[in-house]
Amino acid sequence: MKKLLFLCLVGFLLSCSSDDKSTVTEVEVNLSIDHFKTTSLLHGTAFVVSENGAEKQMAIPFITSFDFQPGFRYQASATRRTIVNDGTSKGVDTYHLISVQSQDTIAPNTTFRVPLAQFVNGFGYVKWVVGNADTGYVLSNEIPIDCQQFCGELESMLVIEDNVTGEFEHGPNGSYILRALF
Questions:
Q1: What gap in Å lies between CA 131 and CA 152, rounded to an integer?
Q2: By the 8 A CB rule, do 119 and 163 touch?
Q3: Sign of the CA dihedral running 48, 52, 56, 58
Q4: pTM, whole model, 2 decimals?
Q5: Is the dihedral of CA 153, 120, 130, 72 positive or negative?
């Protein structure tokens, strides 16, 4: 067992080299940030964002210096820093807020959909919801869910490891009110 651990450690150390090169670029972008957070496989929750007026939305886990409040749509400018490992051509983007141009309140009964559980290749069945019908549910240990009359149905769907998406409205104190399950 010690030999295996030693070999793994040596292999890891030899695979990393100090001459790996990275390319770093920074560009200013305009962000449209939606009024709710969605789930993220690696980060729990993420902002729903489109960049520079693009129609396609993406999930961004963090925007440094951004004070998000659910129930508002934001127009903001930010610096996108991209670090690309030249050896693998893989990149990582980070965002730093420059300024917020607008913060618009959404209509009170606006609904939105968020994945709550699904099968993900390479990861298996992923649940972003923790809790139960008695103690309540929380989305990614961050957003309280008021499941109303859907608590039993949600619990059943999670037990049988079904793909689950919830349709929500904003509730008090940053909570989500569950309106439907799919």
A1: 12
A2: yes
A3: negative
A4: 0.83
A5: negative
Confirm if 155 and 127 have CB atoms less than 8 A apart. no
Q: Tokens for 49? A: 């964002």
58 Cα distance to chain centroid: 9
DSSP 64: B
Q: Which helix (H) or strand (E) holds 95?
A: strand 90-105
| Segments of the chain scoring below 50 in pLDDT | 1-18
Q: Residue 150, SS3?
A: helix
User: Rounded to whole angstroms, how far apart are CA atoms 43 and 62?
Assistant: 9
Report the sign of the C-alpha dihedral through residues 141, 56, 82, 91, in that order: positive
The C-alpha angle with vertex 116 and arms to 40 and 111, in degrees rounded to 5, equals 95
Residue-wise burial string across 45-74, b where 16 or more C-beta atoms lie within 10 A, e elsewhere: bbbbbebeeeeeeebbeebeebeeebbbbb
Helix (H, G, I), strand (E, B) or coil at 15: helix
CB neighbours of 136 closer than 8 A, spacing ≥ 6? Answer: 144, 145, 147
Instruction: Give pLDDT tens digits for 49-58.
Output: 999 999 999 9
Is-contact 33 61, C-beta < 8 A?
Answer: no
